[in-house]
């Protein structure tokens, strides 16, 4: 039986400005931009995030546009992801989810952009999604859980790479 039973709609980079629900986090990190980018593009990206049980690429290297990945969130939710942007030189990549194990979203996307910053780097991490049509109000009620999950990702990333400051 295929656990990925729910298809999500593809999006492009405009979704990060137009999605009904968006979150953008800027993390100023003590690590060099190349070190942060290497952590985000390693065979087990985001391994330092406790809320993400297993994140791994499901396509072979070299990674780039068209790369696929699978991610487990809080051990109960899984997504398949498709990268539609991958720019090594700019240290910038974006994906949208193609399938999931639960019907939470119509569309879901993430964007990672690593920039040089005095004394380290700045990771701009963006999330954009439209809730599944039957869960719009339920997701509003679940906002504290989503905020807690994002806070956990931020805390773990700052602990892994060393914090400078956090900006929004």
Description:
The chain has 168 residues and is α+β, with helices and mostly antiparallel strands. 23% of the residues lie in helices and 43% in strands. It has helices at residues 15-18, 33-41, 136-141, 143-161; strands at residues 6-7, 21-29, 52-57, 68-73, 77-87, 92-100, 105-117, 120-131, 163-167. Strands 1, 2, 3, 4, 5, 6, 7, 8 and 9 form a nine-stranded antiparallel β-sheet that branches. A hairpin with a 4-residue loop joins strand 6 (92-100) and strand 7. It starts with 5 loop residues before the first strand and ends with a strand. The mean pLDDT is 90.
Briefly say what this structure is.
By secondary structure, the chain is α+β, with helices and mostly antiparallel strands. It has helices at residues 15-18, 33-41, 136-141, 143-161; strands at 6-7, 21-29, 52-57, 68-73, 77-87, 92-100, 105-117, 120-131, 163-167.
Q: Could you list some keywords that capture this structure?
A:
alpha+beta, 43% strand, 168 residues, 4 helices, 9-stranded antiparallel beta sheet, single chain
Furnish the topology, listing elements before pairings:
Elements: E1 6-7, H1 15-18, E2 21-29, H2 33-41, E3 52-57, E4 68-73, E5 77-87, E6 92-100, E7 105-117, E8 120-131, H3 136-141, H4 143-161, E9 163-167
């Amino acid at each position: 039986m295929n656990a990925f039973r729910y298809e999500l709609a593809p999006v492009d980079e405009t979704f990060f400005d137009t999605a009904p629900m968006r979150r953008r986090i800027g993390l100023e990190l003590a690590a060099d931009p190349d070190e942060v980018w290497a952590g985000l593009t390693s065979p087990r990206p985001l391994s330092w995030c406790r809320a993400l049980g297993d994140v791994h690429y499901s396509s072979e290297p070299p990674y780039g546009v068209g790369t696929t990945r699978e991610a487990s969130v809080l051990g109960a939710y899984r997504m398949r992801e498709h990268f539609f942007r991958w720019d090594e030189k700019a240290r910038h990549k974006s994906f949208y989810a193609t399938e999931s194990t639960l019907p939470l979203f119509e569309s879901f996307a993430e964007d990672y952009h690593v920039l040089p910053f005095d004394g380290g780097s700045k990771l701009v991490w963006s999330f954009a999604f439209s809730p599944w049509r039957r869960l719009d109000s339920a997701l509003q009620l679940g906002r504290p859980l989503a905020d807690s999950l994002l806070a956990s990702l931020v805390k773990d990333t700052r602990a892994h790479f060393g914090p400078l400051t956090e900006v929004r």
